[in-house]
Amino acid sequence: MDLLNLARALDPIYLMRDAGFEPDPWQARVLRSSSDRIMLLCARHMCKSLVTAARAVHRALFRPNSFILLISRSQDQSDELFLKIKRIYSALGRPVPVVRELVSQIVLANGSRIVALPNNPDTARGYSDVDLLIIDEASRVPHSVIVATEPMILASRGDVILLSTPAGQSNYFYDQWISPHGRWERITARAAECPRFDPALLDELRHDLGPAMSAQELDCEFLRDDQQVFSTESIDAIFDTDEEAIRLPDSPGILPGPRW
Fold this sequence. Notes:
Layout: H1 3-10, H2 12-18, H3 25-32, E1 37-42, H4 48-62, E2 67-71, H5 75-91, E3 98-102, E4 105-108, E5 113-117, H6 121-124, E6 132-136, H7 143-149, E7 159-164, H8 172-178, E8 185-189, H9 199-209, H10 211-217, H11 232-238
Parallel strand pairs: 1-7, 1-8, 2-5, 2-6, 6-7
Antiparallel strand pairs: 3-4, 4-5
Helix pairs in contact: 1-2, 4-5, 9-10
């Protein structure tokens, strides 16, 4: 292994930087975490899927024969995460050759493969021996899908990453976040803590969203059902893009305005 890839293998921060992205402090914690169970509770557009994609690429490149499974609330959402993985992999110069590449699957010459699936329990049950299970927008993935995926990591003793913005208190993600049991490493990333967001634009967005929605979407608070003025579907429609704010040289972070 050459010195460049040795540095990337030993510290995933180098991998993310070499792909063109400078990690925020909370992202550095995610990249360097040795936990096998990680929960990411993040405000909108904090680049939670980007840093998760970097971890997935690191696993695929430096742990041969790894099976990485991506699940989200829809196939489109899973494919968006999969595209970020391919973007990072390509930015690194594709250091391990591809032997098979499909719309939602990639297999590397070292035996590692990455597969993206929707939140369909019947589809998910067809896979086993998962080394890294990633559930994107986990607060919006039905519990039946969670139940279907849990056996996948038993034999392989695989790792799990759950990432999401809050979506009320009636879901698996919330239950795990507040549970005193389990061995989750819980990492929170609120909008006010992001150095890439322009404070003035963030204040404007808070004004447009109102107190309740700002608390949920920007401050990572789990609202009760009677506190949520708008339905989860309506809120998702406002933030109808998966494009995340990316740090650019000498450029302030930009948050999308509401689309009423």
